[in-house]
Write a structure and sequence with these properties.
The complex is a heterodimer of chains A (79) and B (131). Chain A is mainly alpha-helical and 79 residues long. Chain A contains 6 helices and 2 strands, in the order βαααααβα. Chain B has 2 domains: 71 residues; 60 residues. The chains are: A mainly alpha (79), B mainly alpha (131). At the A-B interface, α2 and α3 of A face α1 and α3 of B.
């Protein structure tokens, strides 16, 4: 899933470590989220929204969700 | 907490301390218990003495568990991945060598499987956190 975490972090002049410390997570986790390697859990996504004072959907782009996730959501929707 | 290195460095520091203490206990228990068990006359005493080593190993496992609980969700995800890869390696290595033994290769110590599994686990973790 694409997101604006890197952009919002850099706007504030924070390093990945700074953001990690604010969210109580590691720099590796911030890197993984920013580069799209890892989609955060709902509580962490909400915490990211709170730190940047933005709604979650303003930060995370649901349109760029992985094909498999979309496919699985469609299947679930049919049930 | 180190401002430059972040949370993982702090978690790893705590883990290293707890794990090394537990490892020291295990080595001390092994150094004391193995000779004691060899000289014990009663079977019950021998089992009791060797159970002390198992208890020390459980302390090591508890240190790993505490680390698992302490880290964030992504690192926890990586740890599970590393456990899975190391577990799969142990299973495949044990099965492969068991079959080779049936084909006539000499029996080897289980320490090789243990050492190999620990090595795969640590290398996979190293690869994962360096991404």
């Amino acid at each position: 899933m694409k997101n604006r975490v890197r952009e919002l972090r850099e706007e504030r002049g924070w390093t990945q470590v700074d953001l990690g410390n604010r969210l109580n997570v590691s720099r590796q986790t911030i890197y993984a989220i920013e580069s799209g390697l890892y989609d955060p859990s709902l509580p962490l996504a909400l915490a990211i929204g709170k730190v940047f004072n933005r709604a979650v959907e303003e930060i995370f782009d649901s349109d760029s969700t992985d094909e498999r996730t979309v496919h699985s959501a469609k299947i679930k929707g049919r049930r | 907490m180190s401002e430059e290195k972040g949370m993982l460095s702090e978690w790893n520091k705590r883990y290293a301390i707890e794990y090394l203490v537990a490892l020291g206990l295990s080595i001390a228990a092994a150094a004391f218990c193995i000779p004691a068990a060899r000289t014990a006359r009663s079977e019950l005493v021998r089992i009791g003495v060797m159970a002390l080593i198992v208890a020390a190993i459980l302390v090591m496992s508890f240190a790993v568990y505490r680390h698992f609980r302490r880290v964030d969700e992504f690192i926890r995800h990586l740890m599970v991945e590393c456990f899975a890869v190391a577990g799969a390696f142990a299973m495949a290595a044990a099965l492969a060598y068991a079959l080779l033994e049936m084909a006539g290769l000499p029996e080897i110590s289980m320490w090789w499987i243990f050492g190999g599994t620990a090595l795969v686990w640590n290398l996979w973790m190293l690869r994962a956190v360096r991404r």
